[in-house]
């Protein structure tokens, strides 16, 4: 079969080339992890439409390890809110390894939820009546992110529970400092179980895509967490997800990401896709060698760096000009409307309105008003597909501000993009009706003169 898909081809090409990159060491401080085949190499990408692309061992299970941390952070944020969670776990890159004892002097608050200390506290914050229920909620949450019921690799769990003294020590330190409340044993046991949840690269790509998609799983359509939470989780991943390599990662790859000692790595390109790589050998910073290489290349090739300049796709304001309706008029009224043609201006807008487009629209309106001194402006949103909440708030005060200048603004807003959320706007379902309404107003204004004409 001839492939016409650049996404599938790119994954296959990256997989075939980078499989020869045989550097790094498989983690063995959790003995069971050392038994895994270092050659395993899976790639998966999930688009915002829920299309899955894979290459290599994308269906081979591994334990999620630290890649669980952003998702449990999301759950804690959903349970407690940002203010409460931030009181307990910071959001500063530690600049240290994942298992560093990086606690804020004095408070003992861990640096961020992406290192072990912060993750142990975050796990303990998940609302529950018992440790068992807490873990069930974590498993259910991660399963919703993945879009299928996940389970636990009991051997890896047992292996880490038997050897995880450093994490236990961290938890004791935090309990001593007061940043971890409750039982150390319960906190680390739940954390170890969470790290032993079994996933494939394909699952991880869906999970990352859910974060990229504003918290809505693009495969199942389930709203897993509210958009502001997905945004904050991505922010913490961007600054802290790659441990002490986080700065270099943001510089070179420019995507929120999270790695784990099993060799799992996810990255999310907001509003574009989630990607995951599974390849066990790790570099000196604890990040998977091949995963890092894949993401560096993919980011470069698809132009994905978050800080890329993205020019607007199309003009926002497509026309500015006088408006005339088809409503039948008396001869006198028609003459008056013709003479006052510059008093009704139609501004036609298209596309998705975010900050840039809305600033552009406001600027065009400003110019139209100063050039023609209209008394009525019809904002035609007939071809607007989306208004971001921030953009709607930029437009919200417009009717009142224009009224101060003697201008009435109305909107053609078939989908209720503006009028559904704001009572400041007079909305019409069609351009003709909106212009006719303005004409009626204009004629009523001029009433005596129409009579005497
Ligand atoms: N970086 C990681 O994936 C660490 C997770 C592992 N379970 C640990 O706590 O040591």
Question: Tags for this entry?
Answer:
Beta-lactamase, 18 helices, 2 domains, Transcription Regulator spoIIAA, 5-stranded mixed beta sheet, alpha+beta, 15% strand, binds glutamine, 453 residues, 45% helix, 5-stranded antiparallel beta sheet
Write the layout of secondary structure elements.
Blueprint: H1 6-18, E1 42-47, E2 52-56, E3 62-63, H2 69-80, H3 82-88, H4 116-125, H5 131-146, E4 151-152, H6 154-163, H7 165-177, H8 184-195, E5 197-199, H9 201-212, H10 227-240, H11 246-252, E6 257-259, E7 264-269, E8 273-278, H12 289-302, E9 317-322, H13 331-339, E10 344-353, H14 355-372, E11 376-387, H15 389-396, H16 398-404, E12 408-412, E13 427-428, H17 431-445, H18 447-452
Parallel strand pairs: 10-11, 11-12, 12-13
Antiparallel strand pairs: 1-2, 1-8, 3-5, 4-5, 6-7, 7-8, 9-10
Helix pairs in contact: 1-12, 2-3, 2-4, 2-10, 4-7, 4-8, 5-8, 5-9, 6-8, 7-8, 14-15
Bound molecules: glutamine (GLN).
